[in-house]
From TrEMBL:
Protein name (record): Acrosin-binding protein
Compartment(s) where it occurs, according to its Swiss-Prot or TrEMBL record: Cytoplasmic vesicle, Secretory vesicle, Acrosome
Function: Acrosomal protein that maintains proacrosin (pro-ACR) as an enzymatically inactive zymogen in the acrosome. Involved also in the acrosome formation.
Assigned GO CC terms: acrosomal vesicle; nucleus
Amino acid sequence: AQQPGTPLSDQEYHQFFKFLRITIQASTACHLRELYGCKNSLVQRLDEYENHGVIPPGPICSELPGNPFFHNFCTFSLYRCIMKKYFLKV
């Protein structure tokens, strides 16, 4: 274990920035979704990419306790964006 206040090791920095880049990319995709909506062709391509080429039809169920049901993938994605739970899966 590292001493509190010491810098990260090279491997720890690699993991830190890898996660940060992924989070920034997810945040950017959310920003596009909020600006242009789910019907935008770029947003739809991102949704297809995330789901191996097909946007799942609704309803969408997630492992999220208390709110497991969403009418469609767009609603689910907007929820993830608002809550900043970018990597929540269905």
